[in-house]
Amino acid sequence: MTAIRTAVVADPLGLHARPAAELVAQARAYESDLVLASGEKTGNCKSLLAVLKLGIVGGTEVTVTATGPDEAVAVEVLASFLELVHGEGTS
Question: Where is the HPr domain (predicted)?
């Protein structure tokens, strides 16, 4: 099976280096294959370079897809993470 969830990136600065690294660290805790999609672009959630190459800005709708034994939990955790403001864009 596959689990899919969409989220809107809440941080006005988007998915830049620090939150992208946090996302990747969280993704690596799961056994499932995890993919982040933005428009026509997709990237492996467990690869920092792949996530950064997506160029995701604040307010972008993204899709998290997981396939594997812990897919349901993984998509919920990662999508929820993307829906949070991570501090730097709140001044």
Answer: 2-89
